[in-house]
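COMPLEX REQUEST
Ligand: flavin-adenine dinucleotide
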Amino acid sequence: MDRTSRVAVLGAGVMGAWTALHLARRGHAVTLVDAYGPGNSLASSGGETRVTRSAHGRDEHYPRWQRRALAEWQLLEQHTGIHLFEPTGVIWFARSKTGFEADAADVLERLSIPVERLSPDDVAARHPGVATDDLAWALHEPEAGALMARRGVATVAGEVRRMGGEVRIGLAKAPADTSASLTGLRLADGSSLEADAFVFACGPWLPKLVPSVELSVTRQEVLFFAVPPGDRRFDAGAMPTWIDYGEAYYGMPSIEGRGLKCAPDTPGPLVDPDQQERVVSTSVVETARRFLTRRFPALAAQPLAEGRVCQYETTADEHFIIDRHPAHENAWVVGGGSGHGFKHGPVVGEYVAALVVGDDEARANLAPPDDRLGLRPRNPGHGLRTSAGTPAPPGGAPTSGG
Ligand SMILES: Cc1cc2nc3c(=O)[nH]c(=O)nc-3n(C[C@H](O)[C@H](O)[C@H](O)COP(=O)(O)OP(=O)(O)OC[C@H]3O[C@@H](n4cnc5c(N)ncnc54)[C@H](O)[C@@H]3O)c2cc1C
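STATUS: Structure written out below.
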């Protein structure tokens, strides 16, 4: 593809927006189209915050991508002056000396990514709001933290505009054209969108545009509990972003006064992202409160300050999908974030841009060591972690890996 080629990116979530920005940086005329707008509340990239952490069990590829992506988020923050990363550190509460956290610590040390192994007493001394009686140890990633989610996506889309790209609202229809090279798409308002290449980055909506994509789209609830007035123990700076292995909960300190984030990482019921009601369930709040009693006792009786409902779009093996469209040689399919895709947005976008323009050197530099991202039937139960990294608890449904 030459530098004057036009590229249409469908979907302005974290993956589409970063893809559009990397293509715009390469000099392409980019149109970024989204049904609801960049950083909207229905998208999987909506909401306030996302965990960015390197630990990924024995896997070495995702830690490398995460570090590269985090550097990009931080560069964007410096460049725009918009707060996008809260350097809280990430702590993993571990009940066993072996397993995911121990494997991850070994990998991070091998990759020279800073990591600390803390005793329960260390944790209690550093973070007095945490109950540690059931812990064997904790893994601390001092350079990890929390990304500001919808603000981040909106900032990336703003950069696309600044680079001369077009960002517009529109609902793309599935391609009607069956020819090998796609020349255009229809939008729901009757207009057409012509380009030399297309990227479908529609998150949980992807199967509606590319039916061969298989995703489990599940309801996920995110809760923010008010911290006691004047109590600083749960604020960013005092409390890190946290992941509780055995309990399948993760969360964050109170960032920008929102309260302690506490979210179950088990897959909820299957939903349609256009239709699901986004009112949090009393049962999810009650179960979370029981967890708080065990891990953050001072918050167990605190009121819920805020709740959000989102969805995971999970592949059977929880690896993302980044591949050529099955029917069109000039179209690409990107998604399947599987509850851990946000942090990687900058590198996903960089990688997709390299594929779209045929930059083999950049592609080879970023590609995983295996075919994990291919659009093909996946083996279920790979056991990768989801949003924050916690595994499904005993009995948890395997749809998102929990
Ligand atoms: C509750 C929750 C917690 C999570 N926690 C973490 C975390 O801590 N760390 C982490 O790294 N990841 C996390 N994730 C996962 C991460 O947020 C997602 O993997 C990622 O945001 C998906 O981005 P996306 O761009 O693929 O999809 P989306 O953000 O859903 O974007 C897709 C976009 O496509 C648009 N669209 C859909 N159909 C069309 C169409 N026909 N035409 C035009 N536009 C269309 C939509 O409006 C939407 O904006 C979490 C996800 C959830 C839901």
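REMARKS: The longest helix spans residues 61-80. Residues 384-402 have pLDDT under 50 and may be disordered.
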